């Protein structure tokens, strides 16, 4: 294989227009989170994405014994402790039996002293449909406003949606959408989960894939997703392979083009995630809703790479700060 491409901060840089749009977007995120308890009809402020928590659990990452030598400095322990959150991507929490099959598998990795090493919010779809930063910001701003019943933003939302159509029509996007439709009723733990965007691994740039081992896709077909997931984790051990792809060439492994899959970069298994049965955390505990899986809180050499990822940094900060402020006030009132 050729030498891995080295990380360059230019991969993350926004232009002036994008920076201005980001400031507008951050204001709507704060407004949305402040009003989110009424939007979702719950008694706490929710996240502005992946608002619905199905469950949270403790887990362990076991390092692959024969991991490639170049990766060994980053995986110098036999095992690492994990906190894992399972979620749905919707902004609004609905108590429905059937949710859209847009699931999150967020992983927080700790060192032996309990310090944070990395956060990886993984999702069950490997691609992102928008490459234009300005289109994404305008669309997300309009969606936040519509959720807050600012109906004048409906037109802007539809205009930006139309602008995303060309990036939705790549072969990779269409193939993965058809696969997702075919798996829409499958059990949440039977899906593969992906980092979507790229991440640093020291000076290298990688993508991550988590692939479950031997999980029956028909589990809990007649149950609510939350019930089927918690029942499974109370009675079964769960194991998934963790694999990475390395960026060697921007033509084959583009960092700022998220609607195509990386090619000519084989998956390398680096370890396994294990959740032993009965490792669930108390879903009624307010501290679990205060958990943050912001990948930019990770150690610098594990952080996200790319312009769309950079937007997530600012969005996470605003969302978490607003959510924690409100939830701590609510928690104080109820205690």
From TrEMBL:
InterPro entries the UniProt entry points to: Catalase_sf
One MF term in the entry's GO annotations: heme binding
Protein name: Catalase
Record organism: Chryseobacterium panacisoli
Lineage, broadest ranks: Bacteria, Pseudomonadati, Bacteroidota, Flavobacteriia, Flavobacteriales
